[in-house]
């Protein structure tokens, strides 16, 4: 289980700092810092740093193996985030779906895509123990 005194850190490439900042702030992430070559966000309690790297953008992103996101432990928070993404017209890579239907690890999920083709997954497991 996660200790609350730790913050996960993830660094990802971005092609444009302005559009990256706009996307993540529209998603509800707080802008923590901005420099000439990166922007740092509070991404649902963790740290995501988007480094300006326009020549390292994945032009044909795939869900697997590389994506990141949030696993909600509360279904209401998952549903609120989904409704917010729809309302704000955030770009979906994969619309909401059920994965592993009928199995213990069944979960609800959807994927967004940021302006630099980084994929973000948001999911909720019906059985909380399957989150890990």
From TrEMBL:
Pfam families: Glyoxalase
Signal sequence, start to end: none
InterPro entries in the record: Glyas_Bleomycin-R_OHBP_Dase (IPR029068), Glyas_Fos-R_dOase_dom (IPR004360), VOC_core (IPR037523)
Ranges for domain VOC: 6-125
Protein name in UniProt: VOC family protein
Organism: Virgibacillus xinjiangensis
